[in-house]
Design brief:
Order of helices and strands: HEEEEEHHEHEEEEEEHE
Structural class: alpha+beta
CATH topology: Deoxyribonuclease I, Chain A
CATH superfamily: Endonuclease/exonuclease/phosphatase
Number of helices: 5
Number of domains: 1
Strand content: 25-35%
Radius of gyration: 18 Å
Number of strands: 13
């Protein structure tokens, strides 16, 4: 993946992902694929992408031009339904936030009619110079004991930067029932400036954990990730992101 190192650096350092504990962990699965848990307490701007003080000397990652960086974020838009969608001043701020990035995983979409995620996509496109699209999950909370808290997830993405591979799917949690809201998993190809594939793809699994069972559900994400990689043995880059309530 040498000639795409710039893309990978931009992806790994500009993502805003939250998971407890607040540290960076890499869990090796098999000999190739890796699951990366990332915690960044503040927004990372490309002028300060990476700093460390190894050996007493400050070392910095090369600064990247915005056009060389693909930014990924995760965003729990609390109780995102018709009431919030009906507040133009709120939606304007939400759209401005989304447009800082190229792909945003959104949690806690709550709309029985399922019109809000499409209305929000329209609002994004009305304010963007690029075309955005989304992958919308089925309603999560499929087990009988989870149906009191059903929500949807969405991946909103800039179509000039990312292209989905398939439509995504909810993790099959029917046997163990680890999650109140099953994680949503999807795969994307990164595009270059001309809109052609860079031949680099990555997979994302997003989740909104139940606060009272957050640590148990976080631990179960390893099982979800392992199952995903078993179904996609060629995937080498898997990112877990969302509202972990931790």
């Amino acid at each position: 993946m040498g000639r795409y190192d710039g893309y990978l650096q931009g992806l790994s350092l500009a993502a805003i992902l939250i998971l407890a504990p607040l540290a960076l962990q890499t869990l090796l699965v098999g000999d190739e694929a890796q699951i990366v848990y990332v915690a960044v307490p503040v927004e990372v701007e490309n002028e300060s992408l990476s700093t460390n003080t190894s050996g007493g000397e400050e070392a910095r990652a090369p600064e990247l031009n915005r056009s060389e960086v693909a930014r990924i974020a995760t965003f729990n838009i609390k109780v995102f339904g018709e009431t919030k969608m009906g507040k133009p001043e709120v939606i304007s701020v939400l759209v401005e936030t989304v447009l800082r990035y190229d792909l945003v995983a959104v949690q806690e979409i709550k709309d029985i009619d399922q019109t809000v995620p499409y209305d929000f996509l329209d609002a994004i496109n009305n304010q963007s110079n690029n075309t955005w699209a989304m992958l919308l999950s089925p309603r999560s909370g499929l087990q009988e004991d989870d149906r009191t808290s059903q929500e949807q997830y969405a991946f909103y993405y800039n179509t000039s930067v990312f292209e989905p591979i398939g439509n995504g799917s909810l993790y099959n949690d029917s046997v163990d029932d680890h999650f109140q809201r099953e994680p949503f998993q999807a795969r994307f190809t990164l595009l270059n400036a001309t809109g052609a594939s860079t031949e680099f793809d990555l997979s994302l699994i997003t989740v909104h954990t139940k606060p009272a069972a957050a640590m148990a559900e976080i631990n179960a994400m390893n099982q979800a990730a392992t199952a995903y990689l078993a179904d996609h043995p060629d995937e080498e880059d898997l990112v877990l992101l969302g509202d972990f309530n931790a």
